[in-house]
């Protein structure tokens, strides 16, 4: 499904080397010693994953570790064999090879495959240190000219390990989506949950070791591991992968070099633990993760990054950075046309991509809520850490969407820990104007939510808002309709929780309008 990352020529990736060359690398003479470690614990404790599905391939991921703390492995290179087959039993093998898990990448492995058959499932497995991983299922996507009948994908965000269990993924797995789109806050760098159900068992992550341990802990969760194993993921990040409410080089407590140091460590740990290609490897405190992905002629995803390039939030509390609730009339900086959420280069890239069209449905996969949504009391206050803090940038994006003629646009988001369903207009003060897109903001996997509910007279474009439940959104696209099912857990503190669907909405192709289904 991925379009933006250039593929390296066969054999060019530093992580993919021929078997004989791999065995000659420094440190592999100790392979026998490492093999003995398999008896001490499963070296595939953190599971397997696939991502970036395309018509000819995908990225496979694993990370060797027998424990989640402290790197989980001795500081030596380890050969890792991999196999890809057309069947779950791995008898009809189509590719096999060997990668090298390097200590400088905390023994993570990213295998980039191309040249496979389009639009079909594949199964894969890794072996190392005398042990085998669980078998994962990946898939390739239909080619650009194809007309698939359906795409079923889930989107999710905000999985605070301490705030609840990941029962959402158990239910998501049972629904068997083709794809998961994760919209940020994969980890929480700090302990913020009240009355936690489980513990990070570590202080706030601020350096590479801390961020690595946090990802490793999260990946020990069996429901999260199972969902990664079941289908490919497209991932982006939000703030808690670095620190709460960070924007460029400022967060709630620090700014400048201190934040950039955290960013460099956090970005590297993110890449090490996600099924991303070598081209997404960070360079210090920077990397490009905005990109496009397609599913034949049915859907085109524009995956955005609204943290790395954004301007600082306006009108912060004295002595603090980050978001704040402010009345519109008391914060003139809100309307500064020079302020940006995506940065000039990403805005131009998105404008160009929208104009290209290329599919029946246009999906903007971004981190947070885009619709204007104030508090119900008067005077109304707006949260500056989401698009309400960047209204000029939001208007530019929505005007670009109109000018591009991009077909059937749908915006998906997370971050706010609530299901919010809206229609979008460049000018929210003109409710009589026709909407230009619909938006589905999904609630959190586990993070506690706000007390949203009822109606919002100042924001009539908001059709539904509920922050009481945890869960995700399951979306089904066909050439005629997009159906969004808002999934809500019964009790996030119960690992075996049930689930309901409080709302279902249908969007007909050719109309940016919501119909309750």
TrEMBL record:
What's the source species' lineage? Bacteria, Pseudomonadati, Pseudomonadota, Alphaproteobacteria, Acetobacterales
Q: Name one Pfam family in it.
A: PhoD
Tell me where in this chain the PhoD-like phosphatase metallophosphatase domain is found.
153-486
Which InterPro entries does the entry mention? Metallo-depent_PP-like, PhoD-like_MPP, PhoD-like_sf, PhoD_N, Phospholipid_Metab_Enz
Name of the protein in question: Alkaline phosphatase D family protein
**SUPFAM superfamilies, per database record:** Metallo-dependent phosphatases
Species per Swiss-Prot/TrEMBL record = Roseomonas populi
The Phospholipase D N-terminal domain extends over 46-140
Entry superkingdom:
Bacteria
């Amino acid at each position: 499904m991925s379009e933006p990352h250039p593929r390296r020529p066969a054999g060019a990736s530093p992580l993919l080397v021929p078997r004989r060359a791999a065995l000659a690398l420094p440190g592999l003479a100790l392979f026998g010693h490492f093999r003995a470690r398999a008896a001490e614990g499963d070296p595939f404790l953190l599971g397997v994953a696939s991502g970036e599905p395309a018509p000819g391939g995908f990225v496979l991921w694993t990370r060797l570790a027998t424990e989640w703390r402290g790197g989980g492995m001795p500081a030596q290179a380890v050969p890792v064999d991999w196999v890809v087959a057309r069947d779950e039993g791995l008898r009809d093998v189509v590719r096999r090879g060997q990668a090298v898990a390097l200590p400088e990448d905390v023994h993570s492995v990213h295998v980039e495959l191309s040249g496979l058959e389009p639009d079909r499932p594949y199964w894969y497995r890794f072996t190392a240190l005398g042990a085998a991983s669980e078998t994962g299922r990946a898939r390739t996507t239909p080619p650009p000219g194809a007309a698939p009948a359906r795409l079923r994908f889930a989107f999710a965000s905000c999985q605070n390990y301490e705030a609840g269990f990941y029962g959402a993924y158990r239910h998501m797995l049972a629904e068997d989506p083709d794809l998961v789109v994760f919209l940020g806050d994969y980890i929480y760098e700090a302990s913020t949950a009240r009355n936690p159900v489980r513990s990070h068992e570590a202080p706030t992550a601020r350096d590479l070791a801390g961020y690595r341990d946090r990802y490793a802990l999260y990946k020990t969760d069996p429901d999260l591991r199972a969902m990664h194993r079941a289908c490919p993921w497209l991932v982006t990040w939000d703030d808690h992968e670095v620190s709460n409410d960070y924007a460029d080089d400022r967060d709630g407590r620090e700014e400048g070099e201190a934040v950039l140091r955290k960013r460099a460590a956090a970005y590297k740990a993110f890449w090490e633990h996600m099924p991303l290609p070598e081209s997404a490897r960070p360079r210090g405190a920077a990397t490009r993760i905005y990109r496009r992905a397609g599913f034949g002629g049915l859907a085109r995803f524009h995956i955005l990054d609204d943290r790395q390039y954004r301007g600082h939030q306006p009108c912060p509390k004295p002595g603090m950075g980050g978001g704040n609730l402010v009345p519109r009339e008391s914060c003139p900086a809100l309307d500064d046309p020079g302020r940006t959420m995506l940065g000039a280069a990403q805005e131009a890239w998105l404008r160009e991509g929208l104009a290209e069209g290329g599919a029946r449905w246009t999906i903007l996969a971004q981190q947070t809520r885009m619709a204007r949504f104030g508090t119900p009391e008067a005077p109304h206050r707006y949260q500056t850490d989401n698009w309400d803090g960047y209204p000029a940038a939001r208007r530019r994006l929505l005007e670009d969407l109109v000018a591009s003629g991009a077909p059937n646009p749908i915006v998906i988001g997370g971050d706010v820990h609530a299901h919010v369903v809206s229609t979008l207009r460049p000018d929210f003060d003109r409710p009589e104007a026709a909407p230009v897109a619909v938006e589905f903001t999904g609630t959190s996997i586990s993070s506690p939510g706000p007390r949203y509910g009822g109606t919002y007279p100042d924001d009539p474009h908001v059709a539904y808002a509920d922050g009481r439940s945890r869960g995700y959104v399951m979306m089904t696209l066909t050439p005629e309709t997009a159906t969004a099912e808002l999934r809500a857990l019964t009790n996030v503190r119960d690992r075996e929780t049930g689930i309901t669907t409080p709302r279902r909405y249908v969007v007909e192709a050719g109309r940016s309008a919501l119909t309750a289904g």
